[in-house]
Amino acid sequence: MNTKIYKEVFSLANDLMSFANKKDQVGFDACYAQLKKICDDNDNTDKDHPVQWEALADFNDDIEQAIALYNKALLKAEAINSKDYLSSIGYSKALLQVEFGDSEGAIESLEKAKTHSNKIIDKELKAEIHDLLKELQEA
Fold it and tell me: Is 62 helix (H, G, I), strand (E, B) or coil?
């Protein structure tokens, strides 16, 4: 991924967290619009990367839109065969699916994320995926 874009996305994500914590909706909306523009401008170019779509989904308040953005991020991660992003995006998507009441969809997302997580080193993410999947399967 282009380092400049990564730094910009990372900075915007930090700003979004700050605006959210301060309950500054105007600042949040302006920052989110910047992030969306980056995603739209880079879509289907050599600068396109799942991290920008994942960040956009992370900060979207509409569950259905966020899930659609996670799906787009998953497609971008599949295109570059990034097990780290496939795992983290799948987990984040599953959390929203649980919130939305779609346990079956969440289990499916988690099963895929768990398969991908076999190739990553993030033990904490692996454990979170495993624990949520087990909890949903036992419910």
Answer: coil
Percent of the chain with pLDDT over 70: 99
Residue keyed to tokens 């080193």: 121
Core vs surface per residue 70-97: b (16+ CB within 10 A) or e: bebbbebbeeeebbbbbbbbbbbbbbbb
Q: Nearest CA to 115 among 133, 92, 138?
A: 133
DSSP designation for 135: H
Best CA proximity match to 76, nearest among 38, 119, 45:
45
Question: What does each C-alpha distance from 49 to 29, 85, 89, 104 come to in angstroms?
Answer: 22, 10, 12, 28
User: DSSP secondary-structure letter at 45?
Assistant: S
End-to-end Cα spacing for the chain: 40
> Structure pTM?
0.92
